[in-house]
Write a structure and sequence with these properties.
Layout: E1 8-14, E2 17-20, E3 30-39, E4 45-52, E5 60-63, H1 66-74, H2 76-80, E6 91-93, E7 95-101, E8 105-112, E9 115-124, E10 128-132, E11 142-158, E12 161-162, E13 169-172, E14 175-178, E15 181-190
Parallel strand pairs: 5-6
Antiparallel strand pairs: 1-3, 1-15, 2-3, 3-4, 4-5, 7-8, 8-9, 9-11, 10-11, 11-12, 11-15, 13-14
């Protein structure tokens, strides 16, 4: 029996996310998808896709590799959130840094002209290893193998102002999860 996944790997990296809402089950008031890409057809790089009351409820995109950012919108990120299939959304040049220990807390820092954004995850739970195949679910042409680390507490700030809303506890595959998580060692695949 082969231990190699038969699909084509299209990207490897990290994709921690923050989804906040005023009440459990309400629409997200903040939706942040952060990517640190190590390998993709458009090269490595970082990108933050952010929609929040802190961005006037419009998508803002921050990146250090616009080619990778647009490729991601046309593929995996666009599949995850159809609003981001729109490649006319402006991309702001930014620099990226990180700090923390994922056992306790993790912070991603995004710096752009006139903007400082910090995404912090804490109250960290037990990791889950998730592996799905391409086309296993209708509308999901990509598969993923990822380590998801739920975070029961998270915050996002832009220029020192904290986004409203909270993360909410969830279950995934019968295990504790959250609307906010660190997603490390993430690889996405497509069928050959």
């Amino acid at each position: 029996m082969s231990t190699a996944d038969p699909n084509r790997v299209i990207l490897t990296g990290e994709n921690p996310f923050i989804r906040l809402s005023a009440k459990d089950g309400d629409p997200n008031t903040t939706d942040a998808s952060y990517w640190r890409i190590l390998f993709s057809p458009a090269g490595p790089g970082h990108v933050l896709y952010l929609k929040s009351e802190l961005t006037e409820n419009r998508w803002r995109i921050y990146s250090d590799n616009i080619a990778m950012t647009r490729w991601l919108q046309k593929t995996v990120q666009g599949m995850l959130n159809a609003e981001l299939l729109d490649t006319t959304i402006a991309v702001t040049d930014a620099t990226f840094d990180k700090s923390g220990d994922p056992h306790y807390f993790w912070t991603e820092h995004v710096s752009a002209p006139g903007e400082e954004i910090a995404l912090t995850w804490h109250d960290i739970g037990d990791p889950l290893l998730i592996h799905t195949q391409p086309n296993a679910t209708p509308g999901r042409p990509y598969g993923v193998c990822t380590v998801l680390i739920p975070s029961l507490a998270a915050r996002l700030t832009r220029n020192g102002v904290q986004a409203k809303g909270s993360p909410w506890a969830r279950e995934r595959e019968g295990r504790p999860f959250s609307t906010c998580a660190l997603a490390f060692s993430e690889s996405w695949t497509e069928a050959r």
